[in-house]
Amino acid sequence: xxxxxxxxxxxxxxxxxxxxxxxxxxxxxxxxxxxxxxxxxxxxxxxxxxxxxxxxxxxxxxxxxxxxxxxxxxxxxxxxxxxxxxxxxxxxxxxxxxxxxxxxxxxxxxxxxxxxxxxxxxxxxxxxxxxxxxxxxxxxxxxxx
Length: 145
What we know:
This protein is an alpha+beta fold. The protein is built from three helices and nine strands. A hairpin with a 5-residue loop joins strand 3 and strand 4. Helix 2 packs antiparallel against helix 3. The C terminus is likely disordered.
């Protein structure tokens, strides 16, 4: 890893490829590599890998994604990868020998709160529509908790 930025709307990680990979030379090959990366990320999120930090003797903080990856970082983090929702990885880009992986994700509890808000808002409107609509909305609110 040679660079990263984890701010919303501009999150990315950049790597310097240790070995040349011919798949990175054309769009179809990059999509193939991106698809494999998406599958790996989805598996790590599904496995709910723990996220934890350790301080080194020189006071640098290293954040670990289970046994999968570790990198120096001083920012805030989710408690585990299972806290992520709606993870999106557009096709990676290659520029000047660097591989850039952009991503977007939301926090699972935030996504649930948005569903809960929407269900509450809809149920308020549904009260005027019919008793069945209210029942459906109440069920949606219950499931979002």
